[in-house]
Amino acid sequence: MIRKNAIAAAGMLAAATLTGQAVANDVFLKMDAFPAGTSPGQLGIAFSQVVQKNLPYKIQVSTGKPATKSALSAAKKKVDLFVTAPTINHFMQTKGAMYKKVPDADKLNQNLRGIINFSLGPYHMIVFAESGIKSLMDIKGKKVFLGPPAGAATKVTTQIVAGATGYVPGKDFQVMRFDWKTAETAFIDRQMDVVMQPTTVPSPAVQQYAAVSKIRMLGIPDAAFETEPMKKALGLPGRTILEIPAGVYKNQVNEKPVRTIGSWVGLGTHKWLDEKVVYNMTKAFWENINDVYATAAWMKAITPESALKEMNIPLHVGAYRYYKEAGFKIPDHVIPPEAG
Length: 340
Fold this sequence. Notes:
33% of the residues lie in helices and 20% in strands. By secondary structure, it is α/β, with parallel strands linked by helices. It folds into 2 domains: 6-119 and 265-339, D-Maltodextrin-Binding Protein, domain 2, CATH 3.40.190; 121-263, D-Maltodextrin-Binding Protein, domain 2. Helix 2 links the parallel strand 1 and strand 2. The radius of gyration is 21 Å and the shape is globular.
């Protein structure tokens, strides 16, 4: 949301830092982000820092809200920047999964626009080695965090568990209902036995678990990839098969890589956000990409070749203008209708 100060508008315009045009000195934006220990959280922080360092913009970052709810907030112009995902957009477009009871979800999705996509990383399914849990079959009767209630990640982990074990949440094991940050603390405090979360390799969140005690990654058996639940999980936009290497974390006891599912996510906005503002932010991000890379090693995977991969909503017209000027290869299906 952009608030313009009447006095500043009447007497002062900030010199443009990127476009050569004047922009309001008090652009104020709201961002829904993930916790700092997650890859979307790291990207959100890096993006907001680069923007605020190089532009006269202010970004208020809030964490804790599931991305599925943030998408609805953005579609209703209640938040300006948020973590998006091809799967979330798909469920909105089809009015499926967590959006079954949102009658206008498909229409709301038409208000959403993309800025950048990136690989979220593999789903880590983690236990402390001392728990004795060595496979997904061993989680029966245990306390398991699948993800935040009504979150897109929770649907994926539920499908993974169903395909690998046939277990039913709430029947075969106890479902722990937390947000991401609370779940991290609860796992470290041994309030639950298994934590499942999509994150980069290496992940700061997982590294903090390993700093406490030896950890084990639970993998998906090869045969499970042929089951119907797993095929459904992999059949959605932005889903891939990835491996977590052995020994990538200190105190990790796995002797071989574990196979799991990976996902793509992105940074999105709504169609009403000012074109110049999004153009300036996108340009600031890419022209200062080395500053972004310096915040976390995994971010070096964010490249011009990956920036628009798996995107299934249109680009914001401001981002589109930058990408077009910068010579990015832009798929036809993400060209915004506003571009004419």
